[in-house]
TrEMBL record:
The keyword Membrane does not apply. PROSITE patterns: CYT_DCMP_DEAMINASES_1, CYT_DCMP_DEAMINASES_2. Zn(2+) binds at residues 87, 115, 118. It comes from Proteinivorax hydrogeniformans. SUPFAM superfamilies: Cytidine deaminase-like (SSF53927). This is Cytidine/deoxycytidylate deaminase family protein. The keyword Transcription does not apply. GO terms for biological process: pyrimidine nucleotide metabolic process. One of its GO terms (cellular component) is cytoplasm. Belongs to the cytidine and deoxycytidylate deaminase family.
Length: 157
């Protein structure tokens, strides 16, 4: 007979692994031509909201309009204001605001480390912990989250 506790340790993902895998599915909804990012907000092991990067609701997606940052050869991590899209973290927090969901104290799971713009929004939303998979070239983001008391953890696959 199989010991269920041993089976769970071997085959069952941790909560962080579970939620990060979900962010990878959410990222598949992204309409960005350059980077697919998915995010979920979780409190008490329950998903509150999700978000992915793309144009605002009701607006044309980048596959229709083209990517201005790509046309101008803007490197990753620079000149975010030129992009018509919202970031996954922004969309997840906005979904909470739109639907009356309190995200204060939640964990934010995201496929890519947040940029500085998202870090400031995360700090103001009082998110307590950010768990991400992929690096992003933005040291200021890390320092803002640290100063705000937000735990930042990279999950290694």
């Amino acid at each position: 007979m199989t010991d269920c506790s041993e089976l769970n340790k071997r085959d069952r993902p941790s909560w962080d692994e579970y939620f990060l895998e979900i962010t990878e599915v959410v990222a598949k909804r992204s309409t960005c031509l350059r980077r697919k990012v998915g995010c979920i907000l979780v409190k008490d092991k329950r998903i509150l909201t999700s978000g992915y990067n793309g144009a605002p609701t009701g607006m044309d997606h980048c596959h229709k309009t083209g990517c201005i940052r790509e046309k101008l050869n803007v490197p990753s991590g620079e000149r975010h204001e030129l992009c018509r899209g919202l970031h996954a973290e922004q969309n997840a927090i906005i979904q909470g605001a739109l639907h009356g969901i309190n995200v204060k104290g939640a964990n934010l799971y995201v496929t890519t480390q947040p940029c500085v713009q998202c870090a400031k929004i995360i700090a103001n939303a009082k998110i307590k912990r950010v768990i991400f998979i992929g690096d992003y070239p933005d040291d200021l983001s890390s320092s803002i989250l640290k100063e705000a008391g937000v735990l930042l953890e990279q999950h290694k696959k």
